[in-house]
Fold this sequence. Notes:
two-stranded antiparallel sheet; WH-like_DNA-bd_sf; five-stranded antiparallel sheet; Arc Repressor Mutant, subunit A; Sig_transdc_resp-reg_C-effctor; Helix-turn-helix domain-containing protein
Amino acid sequence: MDKNKHLYGFIINGDTHFDIAHKRLFRISILPAEQSIYFGTVSLNDNMVRLLILLFENHMNFNEAATKDEIFKKVWEVHNKTASSQRLWHTIKELRAKLSSIGLPQDLIVNDRGSGYYVGKYQVTPLFY
Length: 129
């Protein structure tokens, strides 16, 4: 990555925008059959933002799961926070609920038991400035 470029966010499946700086996801879907527009937005906490960035980067760069140890380190420990399986489970549960509230599928974040978490079969495109 060019050192002059900074990660701004991601586009998920062409209609959902992840704005890192403002810690929010918003989705704008145009439904041609009903000739209507759907708009939804949710705010995320710092742990959710860091987790999504890690999962999206692993998805784009390596197409592999982020291990629990990697998640613990990059989401919590590097930021002087205490990591635990319970905290990870709770963060994933809350994040999935927020994703669902704006119409994103539950399988956007997949748990591969024994391997870690990964992004399902969805298109994720990084945005830079």
